[in-house]
Amino acid sequence: MTSKWAGAVFVLAAVISGPRAAWAGCWDGCCRDWSEYERACRCSGGTPYPNPARCETGGGYTPPLPVDPRPAQLERYRALISKGLVDDAAFAASPVDTDTEFARTLGELYAALSRSQLVSQATRGVYNARGDAEWAQYRDFFMPRFALIDVSDGLVPELRDSLAAEKGRLAAVEAETRRLAAVRRSFVNDNRSLAKAADLLKETALTTKLRVAAHLGGLSASEVESTTPAGSVSLPLEPPEAAAAEAEPWYLNDRYLPHPSLEAAIDASLSALSLARVRAIASIGGSVEDRLQFAEKMAEGAAAARRSADAAFTVYNTRRLDNEAAARQWASRAQTNRPLWEEARGLRAQGIPKAKSLLKWTQDTLKSEAWEFAANGGKGAAWGLFRKSLLDPELKRVADEVFRGRTFVRTDDEIRQAWKLGTPLVAPAITNYSRVKKLHSLKAVVASLNGNFQESTLAAAELLGQAAPGEAEDLGRKLTAGLDAEARKEVRFAIAQTDLPLAFKKYWEAAIMDGR
Question: pTM of this prediction?
């Protein structure tokens, strides 16, 4: 029994262990040795290797089917066109049903991504160029102007100081004009020095010529009654209009003039952008997988270029907005500062020139009046000196020689009365007087003093040159009585500026002494 069951067990073990041993050997052979490929493929449960179609499986084993890559490739394709780097709607409608269609569409996608990269790079160049131009405007135009602004009042100190300086110059000119106008009033109106000199000339010349006519004869009525007027500077009755000053540009120009080089850089970047939009793109080849990988790689570059362009736009836009804000702020500042500049410009262009014109007219008028005063007073003094030094001594000699010492010289009142009544003034004996040469000499002096302005001033200057200082001072005190020291100083200065003969000027330097 034991032997019987033992044999049965042995047979069963052999039956069971035989196939397992064979299966194990098949597995090992399949795993270890390619030369046993055919044998391994006949083993039940054997694992197939590549080319499973050659494998004759045993025990009902069926190898797995190959994996189709198309679904995954289509997902990668859709992910590419959804990145916004190309026209996703157009590519979503592109045919991809066959490998040929899919490969052609991937080639077009690669070209579109390449175009996107080129355009983004060129766009970045445009924004960089425009950003540089915006920064240059802010740096060169707005920053220097804002640096001039005094934050305490929003004004440009230079404009404020310039206006104050122009007002100061105008005030100085107006003050000098008022001072000289006061001198003129004192000299011409209050003190009547100009009228005194004219009266002195008329009275002294008439009296002297009447004495010549009464005692010596030889002067006609017109020669006696005429009095040579004094010369003067020809002046307009009113101050002339000041010459229009050249227009000035606004102190701080509101218009920014771009740098030509920056504008050229912008134009060049725009041209590069236009070229990038039409530039030829090289095609790609290879399988669908190859083309898809090329497209994915190009998408990375296009995305990086797009980010770079967006960053350049952010910088440019920030600078543009800064400039717009600065322009609004500067417009407000300029609106505050421009009136200061316009007022200062108006003072320079009109106010100060007009005030200077009035001052010059006042100076010239005072100079003309001083000229007339000096000429009239000097010639009047010369007539008096001629009478005192030359005429009266000669009349005394004529009376002694012709009338034997009898009273001959009449008083001025008697002569004026006789002249008025038409009574003959010349004594009969004088007509036969033998001292013709001396009489002609005296009459020549009378004619010279009574000649035109140039001749009479020269003759008067010659006589004044012979006058004693005391006589000049006496006459000066008479003519300038009541004239204050400032008016004396200005009249002397004005006379010194005239082209009257030197003797006239010296005479009045002695006659119009400060404080006398």
Answer: 0.62
